[in-house]
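User: Run a structure prediction on this.
Assistant: Running it now.
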Amino acid sequence: MVGCSHSAAHLVGGTGHHIRHNFIHHNQYQGLGYGVCHDVAHSLIERNMFNHNRHYIAGTGRPGCGYVTRHNVEQGT
């Protein structure tokens, strides 16, 4: 998942999303650029490699927004 202007994975709603085994990199654009972004969604994020994103994982903080992360690798900005 590379070169997206907003986010590589934008989860708008729902639960049970599973983001795994991806190389998510170079997502930076005018104040945006997230690896995985949550609106009112919940996900498990595991075994991904992140590199050169503005933020690796983001959420709105609205009720129903959340995530669990494990075994991910961050290579830097």
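The mean pLDDT is 89.
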